[in-house]
Specification:
Number of domains: 1
Radius of gyration: 16 Å
Helix content: under 10%
Order of helices and strands: EEEEEEHEEEEHEEEEE
Structural class: mainly beta
CATH topology: Immunoglobulin-like
CATH superfamily: Immunoglobulins
CATH class: Mainly Beta
Strand content: 25-35%
CATH architecture: Sandwich
Low-confidence stretches: 1-29, 120-132
Mean pLDDT: 79
Number of helices: 2
């Protein structure tokens, strides 16, 4: 299934809260390297830069997850997030929340990775928002492939001068005007929350 901009059913999201510092992962499929935050749509505030890119076509998902893990076919949109900490203090990412926001204000909230196995089976859908049925695989479920967890954003703390990257996953069809909303970053020493980030994914 090709993702068609302009047609959307954003309902429940799957955000895997996870990343690897440095942005490099090696698997039997391939090695994927995330670029600097500034290479993608991004926003900077309080010496923190966050970049993001929706992997919204088959070529991009094959690059990151391999050709056998076709997330888009099952209605899952991976969004790469890169966080760069240029502050003098470490960042606490344990309360990090990432949402996909449609042009009309609909938000998609995060779901734990173990929910991939039953994606679409027990999700609560807001009234008035249509969503096509998701063709769940009958035998081996590609949504449980190890590479999905390996590529997920997993960082809990981010030292000063360092960066972390990984994917968040959303049960959604991308649409022009989508934004990424991210909050919950805290100063590791004081516990004070850093300004929230909200910026368009279009670039």
């Amino acid at each position: 299934m090709r993702v068609i901009p302009g047609i959307r059913a954003v309902i429940s999201s799957i955000a895997l809260g996870c990343a690897l510092v440095g942005g490099v992962w090696a698997t039997s499929e391939a090695t994927f390297r995330a670029g600097p935050a500034g290479d993608y749509a991004h926003q900077s505030a309080d010496h923190v830069t966050i970049g993001a890119k929706a992997f919204d076509n088959e070529d991009l998902t094959a690059e990151a997850f391999g050709k056998k893990t076709d997330l888009l076919k099952y209605g899952v949109l991976p969004v790469l997030v890169v966080i760069e900490n240029k502050r003098a203090q470490a960042l606490d990412l344990r309360d990090l929340e990432v949402n996909l926001v449609a042009a009309d204000g609909r938000h998609v909230s995060s779901v734990a990775p173990e929910d991939f196995s039953s994606l679409g089976a027990h999700t609560k859908r807001p009234s008035g928002v249509p969503h096509p049925p998701i063709p769940l695989p009958s035998k081996k479920n590609p949504l449980t492939a190890p590479v999905i967890v390996e590529r997920a954003f997993a960082a809990r703390m981010l030292p000063p001068g360092d960066s972390a990257s990984g994917f968040f996953y959303f049960e959604a069809t991308p649409e022009i005007g989508d934004k990424l909303y991210l909050n919950g970053l805290r100063d590791a020493r004081s516990g004070e929350e850093v300004m929230y980030f909200e910026f368009p994914l279009d670039r």
